[in-house]
């Protein structure tokens, strides 16, 4: 059959746009969205409610910060302290340490279940850190274990047909060691029991402590995808060493930005150097209510995800990041 010129033109356009779409989709799919402490821009961080809301927003991964209880249960909470996200000072006034702080590690899991979780606040002033977020003291939120959260996410994966992953971080392993606890070993065993053992199992394991993360790979023989978190500029000089045991890098996003010239951002060499060493780059934290260097959340996403070419990132607003990537 012969085609006239108009039909050929239409076919060429269809091929052109389908090729462009597949390229764009492939580029988009390479950018992962990590729900930072769940949908923490909308509900108190690391609560089951925040995780369920995050799940419904279709991120690629949901993050779990982990601290051990007195009876060795990994608790999903951002730090070793309790007094900036719970009412522990009211319920257990005599359980603070000499520094005036209340520590997760001094309470059993059953005791921790008695606490009420609230939006993050300054324990000295009582002032809420992010005033436009969920009102402090409202609701009936509780702490939970890593096992409970895994079962929520795996159960939702089963009932919805999705495959949303987990992104656990062990907090302050040196503190745990000093208190006679091996958080890395305990968490890895739990992850293994739930089927997370290799890089293909939709679990990314992260830590700020380079010595401990290297131990996870070399001594504890983990085959999970490992991400080395970094906070300070001098740590960027250790990329080659990080690449000897880790698969990715998690920098504070400002470590990627250099300067803005004529409304155009210039970048440090961090991302390029990491990619050259085979490391994925997942910076933290993209917050729509704390933009600082940017005029809008979309500008932040455009600059970091595509101009700086990072591989994904952590966000308190997973719905906004997913929406941007879907545009």
Question: What would your notes on this structure say?
Answer:
The protein is an alpha/beta fold and 327 residues long. It has one domain (34-326): Phosphatidylinositol (PI) phosphodiesterase (TIM Barrel, Alpha-Beta Barrel), CATH 3.20.20.190. Helix content is 35%, strand content 15%. It has 12 helices and 11 strands. The strands form 3 sheets. Strands 1, 2, 3, 4 and 11 form a 5-stranded mixed β-sheet that branches. A 4-stranded parallel β-sheet has the order 5-6-7-10, covered by helices on one side. α9 links the parallel β6 (225-229) and β7 (248-250). α2 packs parallel to α5 (146-160). It is globular.
What is the topological layout?
Layout: H1 5-29, E1 32-35, H2 48-56, E2 61-68, E3 74-76, H3 88-91, H4 109-112, H5 146-160, E4 165-170, H6 173-178, H7 183-193, E5 204-207, H8 210-218, E6 225-229, H9 239-242, E7 248-250, E8 257-261, E9 264-267, H10 270-276, E10 280-281, H11 297-307, E11 312-315, H12 318-326
Parallel strand pairs: 1-2, 1-11, 2-4, 5-6, 6-7, 7-10
Antiparallel strand pairs: 2-3, 8-9
Helix pairs in contact: 2-5
């Amino acid at each position: 059959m012969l085609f006239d010129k108009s039909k050929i033109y239409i076919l060429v356009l269809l091929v052109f746009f389908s090729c462009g779409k597949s390229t764009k989709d492939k580029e988009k799919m390479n950018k992962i969205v990590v729900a930072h402490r769940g949908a923490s821009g909308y509900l108190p961080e690391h609560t089951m409610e925040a995780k369920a809301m995050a799940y419904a927003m279709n991120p690629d991964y949901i993050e779990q910060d982990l601290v051990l209880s007195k009876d060795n249960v990994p608790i999903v909470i951002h730090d070793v302290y309790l007094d900036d996200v719970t009412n522990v000072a009211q319920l257990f006034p005599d359980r603070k340490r000499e520094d005036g702080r209340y520590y997760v590690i001094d309470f059993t899991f059953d005791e921790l279940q008695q606490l009420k979780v609230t939006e993050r606040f300054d324990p000295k002033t009582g002032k809420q850190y992010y005033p436009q977020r969920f009102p402090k003291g409202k609701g009936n939120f509780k702490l939970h274990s890593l096992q409970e959260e895994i079962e929520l996410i795996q159960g939702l994966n089963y009932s919805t047909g999705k495959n949303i992953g987990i992104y656990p971080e062990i907090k302050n392993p040196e503190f745990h060691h000093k208190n006679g606890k091996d958080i890395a070993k305990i968490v890895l065993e739990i992850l293994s029991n739930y089927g997370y053992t290799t890089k293909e199992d939709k679990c990314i394991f992260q830590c700020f402590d380079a010595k401990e993360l290297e131990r996870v790979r070399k001594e504890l023989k983990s085959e999970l995808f490992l991400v080395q978190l970094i906070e300070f500029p001098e740590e960027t000089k250790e990329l080659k060493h990080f690449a000897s045991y880790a698969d990715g890098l998690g920098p504070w996003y400002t470590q990627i930005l250099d300067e803005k010239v004529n409304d155009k951002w210039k970048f440090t060499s961090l991302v390029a150097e990491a990619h050259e060493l085979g490391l994925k780059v997942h910076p933290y934290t993209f917050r729509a209510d704390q933009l600082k260097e940017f005029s809008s959340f979309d500008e932040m996403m455009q600059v970091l995800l595509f101009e700086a070419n990072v591989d994904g990132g952590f966000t308190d607003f997973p719905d906004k990041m997913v929406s941007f990537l879907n545009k």
